[in-house]
């Protein structure tokens, strides 16, 4: 089940990225902006549906109850984000008939991304049990999530200003377009690094340490065994310096005038 969830996650992430990239044309001339909006909404809708399905396949993982980001399990935080995002897409479709709905729709996108960002931070601080989990890769994805969330907030602010303060429309569009260009380029960089680069899994490092530790223990055990064998051999073959048995008559050592059961030393 986890493999299916990962596959759905990858597909969802791809649709999200291309939806995000196309949506940056919303401030272009009307025809291009309309096409970009329809296309991005379709991509977002597919992405959110795939994400919702993937959330049902996530394994349970204990949350960090004492931390501010541990208000729910990682998968439940994803469910909240996916559900809010789906509602935001449906509201955005209604903006073709009721333009005023663009304001709550844009803020729903921003809140959805906020929950997503929190969940990814939660995952970084409280990693789930995955065979190939990499904290370095998760850090890259967290930065990508931060950039996309920032872009969603900028879009929500720009949409609100344009709707309620038409006099600042031109300045807002210019500034929002500049932010979109800069943040979008950075987001693309981190998305590409997360998607295409290979990262060393954390369990590889732990495995190497465990292997080193086990070898060390084996070496220590061998050393202790050899020392023990040496002590046994010394007990089987006592030293001629101290012996409770008197030397034979033909021994070259001179006999002591003491009793036969006495301890013999060099005299």
What tags apply to this protein structure?
globular; membrane; disordered C terminus; 7 helices; 267 residues; Transmembrane protein; mainly alpha; transmembrane helix; transmembrane
Write the layout of secondary structure elements.
Blueprint lengths: L1 H22 L6 H28 L16 H21 L7 H24 L9 H30 L4 H28 L5 H35 L31
Helix pairs in contact: 1-2, 2-3, 3-4, 4-5, 5-6
The amount of helix comes to: over 70%
Mean pLDDT rating: 80
Q: Please count the beta strands (DSSP E, at least 2 residues each).
A: 0
Largest sheet: none
What is the CA–CA distance across the termini?
84 Å
Low-pLDDT residue spans: 206-218, 232-245, 247-267
Strand content: under 5%
The protein's oligomeric status is single chain
User: Which structural class do you get from the secondary structure elements?
Assistant: mainly alpha
Shape: globular
Rg, nearest Å? 36 Å
| Helix/strand order, N-terminal first | HHHHHHH
**Total helical segments:** 7
Organism: Legionella maceachernii
Protein name: Transmembrane protein
Transmembrane segments: 12-35, 41-59, 80-98, 104-121, 141-165, 171-192
Keywords: Membrane, Transmembrane, Transmembrane helix
Structure notes:
This protein has 267 residues and is mostly helical. It has a domain at 99-127 and 134-198. Helices cover 70% and strands 0% of the residues. It contains 7 helices and no strands. It has helices spanning 2-23, 30-57, 74-94, 102-125, 135-164, 169-196, 202-236. Helix 1 runs antiparallel to helix 2 (30-57). The longest helix has 35 residues, at 202-236. The radius of gyration is 36 Å and the shape is globular. Mean pLDDT is 80; it is low at 206-218, 232-245 and 247-267. Keywords: Membrane, Transmembrane, Transmembrane helix.
């Amino acid at each position: 089940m986890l493999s299916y969830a990962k596959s759905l996650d990858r597909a969802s992430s791809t649709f999200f990225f291309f939806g995000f990239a196309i949506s940056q044309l919303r401030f272009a001339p009307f025809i291009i902006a309309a096409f970009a909006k329809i296309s991005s909404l379709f991509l977002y809708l597919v992405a959110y549906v795939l994400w919702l399905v993937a959330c049902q396949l996530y394994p349970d993982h204990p949350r960090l109850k004492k931390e501010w980001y541990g208000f729910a399990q990682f998968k439940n935080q994803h469910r909240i984000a996916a559900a809010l995002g789906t509602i935001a897409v449906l509201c955005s479709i209604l903006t073709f008939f009721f333009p005023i709905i663009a304001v709550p729709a844009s803020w729903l996108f921003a809140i959805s991304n906020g929950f997503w960002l929190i969940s990814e931070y939660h995952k970084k601080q409280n990693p789930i049990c995955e065979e190939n989990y990499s904290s370095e890769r998760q850090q890259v994805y967290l930065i990508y999530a931060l950039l996309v969330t920032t872009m969603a907030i900028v879009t929500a602010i720009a949409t609100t200003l344009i709707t309620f303060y038409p006099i600042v429309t031109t300045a807002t569009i210019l500034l929002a377009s500049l932010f979109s260009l800069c943040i979008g380029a950075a987001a693309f960089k981190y998305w590409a690094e997360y998607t295409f680069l290979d990262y060393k899994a954390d369990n590889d490092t732990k495995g190497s340490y465990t292997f080193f530790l086990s070898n060390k223990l084996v070496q220590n055990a061998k050393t202790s065994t050899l020392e023990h064998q040496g002590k046994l051999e010394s007990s089987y073959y006592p030293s001629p310096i101290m012996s409770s048995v008197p030397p034979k008559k033909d021994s070259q050592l001179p006999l002591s005038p003491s009793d036969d059961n006495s301890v013999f030393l060099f005299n």
